[in-house]
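pinging the channel bc i need a second pair of eyes. not urgent but kinda urgent?? the chain im working w is below, pasted from the shared doc
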Amino acid sequence: MMVDKLLNETHSLTRLNHVLKDYFATFNIHSFAFTYYVRHVKTGMKLKYDWVTEPLKPWHQYYLEQGYADVDRSLEYATQRALPFFWDVQQQLKVAKNAREKRMRQESIDYGIDEGLNLTLHTPDSGLAVLVLHQRQGESGLQQHQQKKLEWLGVMHCYCCQLHRFLNQDRMSSDIQLTKREYECLRLTKEGLRLEAIAQLLNITPRTVNFHLQNANKKWGVNNKYHAILKQFSS
């Protein structure tokens, strides 16, 4: 099964991340981090979501704690390009512009970082998604990056589409609070009952049933009860 098809058929965020990890493992890439920011780097980023594989977790957490995105010129440069950006940390250390950037590069070496490939996407909600594939000291997973980088960018696009769906589901399920009656009216409509049958079952008038359904529509931001049902009961 093609990885894009598998990504599109995942039903949970945990499974989605597992698929991505297994995919890059086939290229001997075990250290990577995904970060999703709601604003552009230069205007001040707010981290909305991040996920990192276990081998890279110590460095990734330290990087975020130190706020190194502010001085990471490889990240800034990558956001200005449509194509993936390859970097070598030893070369970055040589051209560091200030003491803080130099410290960041040296610390990344101390954490075992050697080379990396930045993949970036600007998302439809004006956000920025960054996938950084790391080649740690003694590894060789990025040797194929010239031949594979566009394929990897396509996989990242699939991942971002699914991630956006899961994050929206989490937001909607926490933000949208239907009353007991609104929920019951939607559920019974989903089961195929008509207005009159729902009214009789709940011992209310058909007009009241319609009132609850209209309220559910408004809360979900849709125009009819069938769209509300899709949003309420989507898996």
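so The first helix runs from residue 3 to 8. and The beta strands are 31-37, 47-52, 85-88, 113-122, 128-136. — does that match what u expected or am i reading it wrong
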